[in-house]
Amino acid sequence: MREALAAVGLVATIRAALQATGAIGDRRAGRDASQQEPEADVRTDLAGLQTELRAHVVRLRLRVVAGAPDGPAALAQAFEDRLLLDDLGRTLGVVHQKLLSLYPAVGEGLVEAVRQLAADARERATAEAYDRALAAFTACTSDLADALAEVE
What we know:
Elements lengths: L1 H27 L10 H28 L5 H31 L5 H19 L7 H18 L1
């Protein structure tokens, strides 16, 4: 068990370092998520983000169907689930920024739904009962990915 915790700590540390390196690289390259972007670029980016969201939805659905494992595998699965929810929250955060660049051409309801779902994913990633109502959360995420298809 001690080795598993050490591995989880190592993976989390490396992940945080990679995310920080990516953010620094973006800033140095002059990319600022808070700026308005050209509509054509945003629509292209949203198509890629929709694919990423669908991949997250598939993984969440598999998790819901498989259920929670017992024993030592439970720690690894919980860690993987939290990483997935964190990735989903980050992806939804980027989608939210992209949609803000299209506002008011896209509905305020969609922009707000993405923001709320991103906040929920981030909260779940750190919550003790992260898997509470995971099937309903997955369905909402899937519906949102479908709604993004209409934006393209």
